[in-house]
Amino acid sequence: MPLTKRIIPCIDVDIDEDGQAAVYTGVNFEDLAYTGDPVEMAKTYNQAGADEFVFLDITASAEGRETMLDTVRAVADEVFIPLTVGGGIRTRSDIKETLRAGADKVAINTGALENPDLIEAGARAFGNQCIVISVDARRRYDAEGEQYVEADGESCWFECTVKGGREGTGVDVVEWAIEAEDRGAGELFVNSIDADGTKEGYDIPLMDAVAEAVSTPVIASSGCGSPEDVYEVFTETDVDAALAASIFHFDEYSIQETKEYLDEHGVPVRL
Fold first, then answer.
1. Catalytic residue among 12, 51, 172, 203, which?
2. Which of 57, 136, 208, 240 is catalytic?
3. What gap in Å lies between CA 115 and CA 117, rounded to an integer?
4. Which residues contact 237 (CB under 8 A, 6 or more apart)?
5. For this structure, is 12 an active site residue?
6. With a threshold of 0.90, does the pTM exceed it?
7. What are the residue boundaries of the structural domains of the chain, listed by start?
8. Which residue from 256, 250, 190, 255 is spatially nearest to 222, judged by alpha carbons?
9. Is the CATH number 3.90.1150.10 carried by domain 6-264?
10. What string of DSSP letters covers 116-157?
11. Does the active-site annotation cover 208?
12. Per-residue pLDDT reduced to its tens digit, 187-240
């Protein structure tokens, strides 16, 4: 029996002008708009049939601060499905404290790129299943990459970015995915800067390139606008899970509707 594909809602959390944690939604990691309360949204998704839940502190790395662990604890109290938390995780101690706050997994982006040994240290200390390497990828159409793919009729490569997509690193996403797997990452969480918030579908060439290069489970993120987009990424690539935000946050589609559509079209899901 084939493994079921996972549907994962995600909240992007920041500190509002009153110093409170709040969920925001944007396009291409910019133009963020208030969306709701993280604890209430977590509670809703836990009851809605989500397979897992992702909490991203979207400015922790850029601002050089720690993840908002008090909010993580409050979210963890409402979520009884696997919870992944990311943002501002730079050390083994950060991983430990985030797991102690109630996370089942930690998503690391900037901290791992700056110190790849953190992947091995985290995997040894807490188990591979806890270590998720998050990649914020953007297309580049120059000769600086290592792994090239055809995308929309052009040859491009994918660059790892940091600080919420604000800075490029020159690191090839596919090469980094392979290294992260070799160092002990238990899962890869692949975001597309180009597709983020567009609702025009996942970046299929990106997801396919990463999923083909590794055996580690891959979560596809960014660009989902409908259940059809989820079906496309599951049937056109070997990703193991699809993450979505806007379509669920604004009640355009429910998790149940999405799963029923996939089931009707032959994609194995947990109903």
1. 12
2. 136
3. 5
4. 204, 207, 208, 211, 212, 220
5. yes
6. yes
7. 6-264
8. 190
9. no
10. THHHHHHHHHH-GGGEEEEEEEEEE-SS--SS-EEETTEEEE
11. no
12. 999 999 999 889 999 999 999 999 999 999 999 999 999 999 999 999 999 999
